[in-house]
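Consider the record:
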Amino acid sequence: MELTKNQYDRIAPLLPRQRGNVSMSNLQVLNAILYVAEHGCKWRGLPPRFGNWHTVYTRMNRWSKKGVLDRVFEQLQRERIVRVKVEAFGLDSTSVKVHPDGTGALKKTVRNPSASPGEDGTPRFIWLPRMLERRSRSPSLPATPTTPRKAANS
């Protein structure tokens, strides 16, 4: 996805005028930005044909802060030169911070009782074990806990 000279001429008025001794034209910088956007590579991964990656990054950063890139990409889409469509995006822990409860960490479930039970206060709950035993018919099987059954209608 590189712009031709004819396509560049249609958006050139939106870009700042180049002054002084510049090593790269706005067209080269714009094509380098489009390359990074299309391929998702790092700035250092720019092919040598685009020039120095740091120069491209510095100019892109300056344009982005001044709103130049927003206007350029709006015009590129209006002219149907570049069509950008975001279909999916990914988030990971380097860009989104998660609350510790959402990380799957084990929760503390054991109380730390103090040395003297009087300081713990009253218990918050009372265990009422209900153990009904039924003797097994076979002497080798242990007794099993059961629950009371309702009487059948006779």
Remarks:
- Helices lie at 5-11, 26-39, 53-66, 68-78, 117-120.
- The longest strand covers residues 133-134.
- The radius of gyration is 36 Å.
- The CA atoms of residues 5 and 29 lie 13 Å apart.
